[in-house]
Write a structure and sequence with these properties.
This protein is 73% helix and 0% strand. The chain is built from 2 helices and no strands. It starts with 11 loop residues before the first helix and ends in a 20-residue tail after the last helix. The chain is mainly α. The protein has one domain.
Length: 124
Amino acid sequence: MQDKNVTKLNSNYMNQYDAYIERQKRKKQRLIRRLVLFATVAVLLIGGMAVYHFNQRVLHAEKVEEYETLQEDLANLEKEEDKYKEEISLLNDEEYILEIARTKYFLSKEGELIFKTPEDNTSY
């Protein structure tokens, strides 16, 4: 087949048409650049929010675990407080103090003998 050479007309219309086509190409390039920039910013924002969200979930899980541990500690301390309150009320009782003095320090009533055996291991 023969190559046909087409000559370009140098007319005012053709110059305007070429300028119009060039402007359309530049518009399309600017549009593509803006869309790529917007997509990049959107991906960065979404990625940043996702990372932040997962970090917050991990932090929340740690705080929940710490809260449960502290709740257990509080329950143990409340039990210990109740035990100490009971001991305080017992120490206000004179009979209890006399019992401690007799068993722990071998104090006796008049005419009473106290023998300590190895199996006798009562400590108050």
